[in-house]
Amino acid sequence: MNEAEIKEIRQKLVRLRSELEELEQVSRETGETVELDQTRVGRLSRMDAMQGQQMALEAGRRRRDQLVKIEGALHRIETGGYGDCFVCGEEIDARRLSVDPTSTRCMKCTEK
Ligand SMILES: [Zn+2]
Questions:
Q1: Is the confidence at residue 52, as pLDDT, over 70?
Q2: Is residue 59 domain-resident?
């Protein structure tokens, strides 16, 4: 990968990170205000609400995973190891990185 490609990926990662951080912020704020009102909601809607909460938790977990991956990729861009496969050390295909800029393995090592 050349410098221009890496620069583009870096911008993409930074943008993605701020989007995720914003979502995280919003869900933290709304999460605090969402409470189950057991006296007013019926059994079914209570289950809906619980399911909704579960999904929100799951989405939050995925978001934080993604943030960790993005931080890692940005760190590798800064330190120069970006785009190298963690397993075999070969360069990861640029097309693969453009689909998922946080990839840490080449196609071959992922398939193993
Ligand atoms: Zn590899």
A1: yes
A2: yes
Domain that holds residue 20: 3-82
| Beta strand spans in 1-112 (E) | none
Asked whether residue 50 carries a pLDDT value surpassing 90, the answer given is no
Q: Compute, in angstroms, the gap from residue 81 CA to the centroid of ligand 1.
A: 14
Residue 89 resides in a domain: no
- Among residues 13, 8, 6, 9, which one has the least CA distance to residue 80? 6
In a domain, 104, yes or no: no
Residue 92 alpha carbon to ligand 1 centre in Å: 7
Count of domains for the chain: 1
* Cα dihedral 85, 90, 82, 101 in deg (nearest 10): -60
| Residue 35 maps to a domain | yes
Q: What separation in Å is there between the alpha carbon of 91 and the centre of ligand 1? A: 8
Say if pTM beats, i.e. exceeds, 0.85: no
Q: Distance from the CA of 25 to the center of ligand 1, in angstroms?
A: 36
Kindly state the average pLDDT of the residues 74-81. 95
